[in-house]
Amino acid sequence: MRKIRPNIQETLDPQALSRAETLDILDSIFPFDRRDQLAQLLTDEDALILKRLAQRNIAQNTLRALASDLGYLQAWARATTERSLPWPTPEEMVHAFISQHLHCAAAAPDGQSDGMPRHVEDSLRQRTLLKGSLPHAPSTVRRRIASWALLTRERGLSGSFDSASVKEAIKQAKHNGGHTPVSMSATPITDDILRRLLQTCKKDGIVGRRDRAILLLAAEAGGQRRAEVASLRVEDLCIGGSNDIHKRYTRRTRLTVRIGAAERDNQLNLSGEAAKALMEWIREGDIETGPVFRKIDQWGNVSRRMLTPQSVNLIVKTRAKKAGIDPSSVSVQGLRSGNPARARRRERDPTLAVAAENEGRSEEVSTRGGT
What we know:
By secondary structure, the protein is mainly α. The protein contains 16 helices and five strands. The longest helix is centred in the first third of the chain and has 22 residues, at 60-81.
């Protein structure tokens, strides 16, 4: 039976509570409050479809995106039409979604439907589903339409998402909508900046050890996205050719990490401070299986729930603020853009550690209990 906080029981009606129980299968990728919000937004059929997708063991990042997009689409439909999203969705409704998300309302002629109506925008912002500015990036709208199409097919229905008119609407909005692409990270995180971020982790206890491991791993795996760092699992680690993470680790032992999309089969060989930080975090977090990077509550208790990609980005920004760096100028993307210099240095000297810190280099680290 689902564990529900008393205040949540009071705010969810019986039908929403039933959907919340159906959505319990998403507990590894969504916190309670997010799932309860989805339970209020979705229909019974929506919840069952997400449960069916989860039972197929599709990638967690894909499932998270589908659930989030479905919640957004339902909230938008209710704010726009005062009804749940119809299936199959009429083509004119798809066009309305594109127009509202890819056009500037202020630039639209009076009496035209271009741009998102104020009452729709206010409704989405009150639910914290719309946080950024409008219009959206075309890539965001294309992703939501792709999710919309997939969820339509899951119902055994067809839609107009691949029609020439829909594609042309996105193409035209891309040129005329007024969206200005912005850099994910204005500041590449070079080695000097990375050292400053790592310095802030030293006195933050278990949270600092987790954040240190994330920073060093993300710096080494410079080609990976934040979602791929967040979704790393213990089963993706291999120590000295063994999948047994209880095996004793020293800085001379090879630590292999499978990271990124499964179809790419990326393998990263970690050594030095990056490997040491990762294994120290696993040991202190008492992590046996499942997600490597997890949430930590205010009392220092490590959750079984994985961090979200947004949390990984927030960690970078939080460390930047503590280091005296403008957090709005950096993101985890900066660890990717700052990586070529580290890659060139490793080509010259493969044994050189990412952070080039000397303390504790001779220390042996066991992944479980003692040294």
